[in-house]
Design brief:
The protein is mostly beta strands. The chain has 1 helix and 10 strands. The protein has one helix spanning about 5-25, and strands spanning about 50, 60, 65-70, 75, 80-90, 95-100, 110, 120-125, 135-145, 155-164. The strands form 3 sheets. A 5-stranded mixed β-sheet has the order 4-10-9-6-7, with no helix packed on it. It has a 3-stranded antiparallel β-sheet with strand order 1-8-5, with no helix packed on it. A two-stranded antiparallel ribbon has the order 2-3. This is tRNA (Uracil-5-)-methyltransferase.
Length: about 160
């Protein structure tokens, strides 16, 4: 029985694919999987523990849900990576999702995943960097039930964005 070169190549390819699969299975780099809620919504992996430390920002109370207020926000010009604390107070019975949009155009600059009560995101990646200037914006706060992830009441916080 003569083994042809083609059969040897096929067997070698199968062995290599098997070895590569085993290597990938056991030695691949660890990946952080998004944590999904019961309805397939994703918790924000960048959210970190937060204690009500928003200096100079008022809290408005709407239907028992505490919504942080925001004064003038300052971002660096032409930068997509910016610092801003978007927090969900610990007392809230819901997840928050933040959307930052420019008033004039309605352009959405940022959308968070769900943020649990007592957590906050502090570093944001905007859709684009803004040119220097003054902008009017709104921070939309979408709320979702902790148990069913059904939409609850929403809030809109108006703010000014100073880009320097």
């Amino acid at each position: 029985m003569q083994i042809t070169r083609q059969k040897i190549m096929v067997i070698l390819l199968i062995v290599l694919l098997f070895a590569g699969g085993v290597f990938w299975l056991f030695f691949r780099p660890a990946q952080v999987s998004p944590v999904q809620t019961g309805n397939g919504m994703v918790l924000d992996m960048d959210a970190e523990d937060w204690e009500n430390q928003l200096e100079g920002q008022a809290e408005a109370e709407t239907s028992g849900i505490k919504i942080p207020g925001y004064g003038t926000i300052t971002f660096p010009a032409d930068e997509k990576e910016v610092q801003l604390t978007l927090a969900n107070p610990e007392e809230n019975p819901c997840y928050f999702q933040f959307v930052i949009a420019l008033d004039e155009t309605g352009e959405i600059l940022y959308t968070s995943d769900l943020i649990e009560p007592g957590k906050a995101v502090k570093s944001l990646t905007l859709a684009r960097g803004l040119e220097a200037g003054e902008y009017e914006a709104e921070i939309q706060v979408h709320t979702f039930s902790l148990d069913t992830q059904e939409k609850m009441n929403n809030a809109v916080v108006r703010t000014n964005v100073s880009v320097q």
